Amino acid sequence: MKRLLWLGAGLAVGALVVRQLTKKANQYTPSGIATSLSESAGGLVESLRSFVDDVRDGMAERENEIHEAFAAGELYQDEFAELREDTQDGTVGRHAQEGQR
Fold first, then answer.
1. Cβ contact 76:65 at 8 Å
2. What is the rounded CA–CA span in Å between residue 34 and residue 4?
3. Contact between 94 and 81 (Cβ < 8 Å)
4. Burial 33-66 (b: 16+ CB within 10 A, else e)
5. How much is the pLDDT for 57?
6. Could you write out the three-class secondary structure of 17-69?
7. pLDDT tens, position by position, for the chain (101 residues)?
8. CA angle 22, 26, 27 (to 5 degrees)
9. Gyration radius from the chain CA atoms
10. d(C-alpha 85, C-alpha 96), whole Å
11. 3-class SS at 7?
12. What's the CA gap between 10 and 80, in Å, rounded?
């Protein structure tokens, strides 16, 4: 009876080891590698999509600030003028420059 118990335990452990080894071996087959890459690419695409959404939200918020300032007739102070090459004096935005002329 003891031998039968040890035989059953050995078979169970052997089956678990074979199953784990088969899973690991499948990860290194071409289809396993392709699956892994597609999952990684899916995560990258989702991260990129999230980044683009955040940028669009920021752009919309900034655009609303500019429109509100323009509607109120205020001079729009362009914070990023010095970073661009297309501005003339770098102190105010293009619309404000036209109003000063």
1. no
2. 43
3. no
4. eeeeeeeeeeeeeeeeeeeeeeeeeeeeeeeeee
5. 97
6. HHHHHHHHHHHCCHHHHHHHHHHHHHHHHHHHHHHHHHHHHHHHHHHHHHHHH
7. 889 999 999 999 999 999 999 999 888 888 888 888 888 888 899 999 999 999 999 999 989 988 988 888 877 677 777 777 665 555 555 555 555 55
8. 120
9. 32
10. 17
11. helix
12. 72
What the block records as the tokens of 14 is 């052997």
CA dihedral 42, 46, 49, 51 (to 10 degrees): -130
Size of the chain in residues: 101
> CA 97 to CA 62: how far, in whole Å?
19
Rounded to whole angstroms, the Cα distance separating 84 from 57 reads 22
